Known about the structure:
By secondary structure, the protein is an alpha/beta fold. It has helices at about 5-10, 15-25, 30-45, 65-75, 95-100, 130-140, 175-180, 185-190, 205-215, 235-245, 250-270, 275-285, 295-305; strands at about 50-55, 80-85, 115-120, 145-150, 165-170, 190-195, 220-225. A seven-stranded parallel β-sheet has the order 3-2-4-1-5-6-7, sandwiched between helices. Helix 9 (about 205-215) links the parallel strand 6 and strand 7. It is globular.
Amino acid sequence: xxxxxxxxxxxxxxxxxxxxxITLVESTTSSDRIKAxxxxxxxxxxxxxxxxICISGPPGVGKSTFINQLGFYLLNNxxxxxxxxxxxxxxxxxxxxxxxxxxMSDISSHKNVFIRPSPSSGSLGGINSSTRESxxxxxxxxxxxxxxxxxxxGQNEIDGYSISDCYILLTLPxxxxxxxxxKKGILEFADFIIIHKSDLISKVELVKExxxxxxxxxxxxxxxxFSSIKKTEIGTxxxxxxxxxxxxxxxxxxxxxxxxxxxxxxxYKFYKNYEVQVQINRYKRNNLDGLNMKKIAKKLVENFLK
Length: 306
């Protein structure tokens, strides 16, 4: 299929073509990468105004449940939604996302919702290397809101900050000290901290929990609470998300994206290089126990750059 035809299909609202386009930008083959870059160049000229939200948090915090409730609220307000869920469990994206969809039962089958699972592909930033391109495709399609659900497995999970207007960290009640220790990097980047499953603690404890985060960050974070059982706070939360602006961080975000793109391109060129493959296979056939891996890596890179 020609690039121009893919673009036309996306602009016409063809979900099947959108899915194929995302598969294309996720591909690592040389011909697909060339085609994908041409498509993204065209899409960048067609992008529409879209609110981009990234939702992170540790496993078990209820990211999918929160997205289901937020999505249901948005659908009732006539919004079209795309959910890009990064799945750590399977290269074919048929693992944990199946369970995630059951927790998005209110929105998963709605005609105005597009849910796309994608493998993390070994990326440590909570998203994968092509998530930004997937976002651009969804913007071109015309979604009003794009929600990126990160893997949720480590403190390096901050790449979603660079491709979103609003970066949300979900926490569990009474997990402040644990979150500080495990996800300090995320806390520094988060625009919102939302205490999820707030029905599990009393109102007094909830106030203390909120004050803990506010004091820790000198009132520089927006701290909210939400219970998927009560659901009463979701309208207020969305209003604050909608009004949140990240324009002051735009240059920093763009530079981070540039550096990530450079690293991705260098990695691709390095491992596709024939001489590098020969040398690595040579090492693979030998016992490397006791050898200095950093020294070997330095030699491989130096040979590649000659």
